[in-house]
Specification:
three-stranded antiparallel β-sheet, alpha+beta, DNA Polymerase, Chain A, domain 1, 106 residues
Length: 106
């Protein structure tokens, strides 16, 4: 089984994975909401949750740099194409297209 391509539809928040299984190439659809991760004080959780476009906020254990031990960070699931995503992209000079985020998160 091989992953050939990934396409993202922002209107339906759907990722379409094109998978080749033997001689057959088939699309597999999956709902996907991007996440951003914030390292900071626990008090930020409520502030981030109150931003428009944020669907869910929780704590997750993530490795923040190579060779480090996992640490607790805030995980925010966001609506695609919302202002929060653009705000993070502009203020932190960070933007990943949804297909790349999908691969990164999975």
């Amino acid at each position: 089984m091989f992953l050939l391509d990934i396409r993202y539809d922002p209107k339906s928040s759907t990722i379409t994975k094109w998978i080749k299984d033997g001689t057959v190439c088939k699309p597999v659809h999956e709902v996907f909401y991007p996440k951003i991760y914030v390292s900071g004080k626990p008090e930020l959780l409520c502030l981030i949750a109150s931003l428009p476009g944020v669907k869910d906020v929780c704590f997750e254990e993530k490795t923040t740099w190579l060779g480090s031990k996992p640490e607790k960070v805030i995980s925010a699931t966001i609506e695609p194409n919302c202002n929060v995503h653009r705000l993070v992209a502009v203020n932190f000079n960070l933007y990943m297209f949804p297909p790349r985020l999908f691969l990164f998160q999975n």
